[in-house]
Amino acid sequence: MSVKRRDIVIGAAALATGAGVVGALRPKTAQSSAPNKSDLAAPNISQNMRQFRLATSWPKDFPGLGQMPNYIADMVRTMSGGRLDIKVYAAGELVGGLECFDATSTGAADMYHAAEYYWQGKAKGFSFFTAVPLGMTAAEIMGWIDHGGGQQLWDDLSKGFNIKPLQAGNTGHQTGGWFKREINSLEDFRGLRMRIPGLGGEMIRRLGGTAVTLAGGEIFQALQSGAIDATEWVGPWNDVSFGFHREAQHYYAPGFHEPGASLALGINLQVWDSLSAEDQAIFKAACAAANHYSLGEYTVKNGYWLQVLKTDYGIEPKIFNDDILREVGRIGDEVVTEFAQADAVTRRIYESYLASRNTSRSWTEMSDGLFIKARQIALGQ
After folding, report:
1. Cα end-to-end distance, the chain, whole Å
2. Sign (positive/negative) of CA torsion 352, 357, 359, 360?
3. Alpha-carbon gap, residue 159 to 144, rounded angstroms
4. CATH classification of the domain holding 252
5. 3-state class of 28 per DSSP?
6. Which of 195, 208, 207, 267 is nearest to 234 (CA)?
């Protein structure tokens, strides 16, 4: 793809926004009737077909994030032989990008696809199910939720909001973000207005900056207008799609705030309970497939678009220095520990998360960590 053509694609993606609310529609079961020609023409669509509305936090068909809900919908439709049909609404088509949780909780939508840390204002425990500073990698958080007791804790937390949660995608390690000015010392964070949600946002506040939560489609305009000075998002693939490199030239790593960001499908609890065990299994399998598919896709696409940033746009990523990393480590531990004291439920989530992180960390650092260092030595930096 030429640079000119790529800029056209980027510009189109940056126009997507999240806004507006429309009326509710509950899932419905079609009435049985005598067979007709239409039935015979589509034998894979049974007469007990159910339709659902899925609201997302993502711009329409945005690479990776915006396509994950479509992938889930396609998997559910295929595995159910067309009985279970999900219509996906991008941010702003049904509700605003940060309103999909409330819409699902109340029944205005049947389900949502988003990042759980967007809801930390409702319950601080939600952040642990996306990412926390210096927390788990993608593989580690998957292990905790599936095999370390995380799913039950997540169910208990979400039940209070009338929602059944499932892992439904992972972007892998995220980058540190795009900045309009260089970040060479802790002093450079003072007065900085940065789009960064979750516990990472609280870290920026304690470093003397201001954290702003914006839906994805709103970020580029905020950078362009000067409403924010910096933003984190995901990684090279999604960042280039939004064109952040055109407004902020300094690209930093690592993303200490989100080492492995897990995404969620939240389903209205009455809708979930109305599904048969077989249909619940279909939803679980579709979400597990999305988790697997998305992590592989992000790994490949981020590598490709990182090279594009370097060769086509002259962006050479920078690394936060050791003094900054030591301080964010101290602050990150402080923030996460304080969040854990919010209530008894969050405390249980924190204790389980921390125990699993420490157990997994010993193996991850010995396996992946040492291997990556060895590969750098063997193949060159």
Report:
1. 28
2. positive
3. 19
4. 3.40.190.10
5. strand
6. 195
Q: Tokens in use for 99?
A: 């309103």
> 63-82 burial, b for 16+ CB within 10 Å, e for fewer?
bbbbbbbbbbbbbbbebbee
Contact 95, 54 (CB under 8 A): no
Residue linked to tokens 């993608």: 138
Which of 81, 78, 92, 84 has the alpha carbon at shortest distance from 110? Answer: 84
Domain assignment present for residue 275? The answer is yes
> pLDDT tens-digit profile of 190-199?
999 999 988 8
**Would the pTM of this model clear 0.90, i.e. be above it?**
no
Using CA atoms, how far apart are residues 223 and 180, in angstroms rounded to an integer? 9
In this structure, are residues 131 and 260 in contact, taking their beta carbons and an 8 Å threshold?
yes
**What pLDDT, on a 0 to 100 scale, did the predictor assign at position 3?**
41
Judgement on whether residues 139 and 159 belong to the same structural domain of the protein? yes
The CA-atom distances, in angstroms, between 337 and each of 144, 202, 347, 351 are: 19, 12, 9, 10
Task: Provide the token pair at 247.
Answer: 């407004």
pLDDT bin (cut points 50, 70, 90) of residue 44 is very low
- Contacts of range 3-10, beta carbons closer than 8 Å, 24 or more positions apart: 3/312, 6/240, 6/308, 6/312, 7/243, 9/241, 10/240, 10/241, 10/242, 10/243
In this structure, is residue 35 part of a structural domain? no
**Do 160 and 277 fall into the same domain?**
yes
Strand 50-56 relative to strand 210-212, pairing: unpaired
Residues 66 and 209 grouped into a single domain: no
Domain enclosing residue 26, as ranges? 3-9+16-30+46-169+261-300
From the number of C-beta atoms within 10 Å of its C-beta (0-12, 13-18, 19+), residue 241 rates as: buried
Beta carbons of 56 and 163 less than 8 angstroms apart: no
Q: What is the pLDDT of residues 297-306, one digit of tens each?
A: 999 999 999 9
232 closest CA partner among 259, 194, 188: 194
Which ranges in 46-197 belong to alpha helices (H)?
68-79, 100-106, 138-147, 150-159
Q: Identify the H or E element spanning 54.
A: strand 50-56
Residue of 213 and 348 predicted with greater confidence: 348
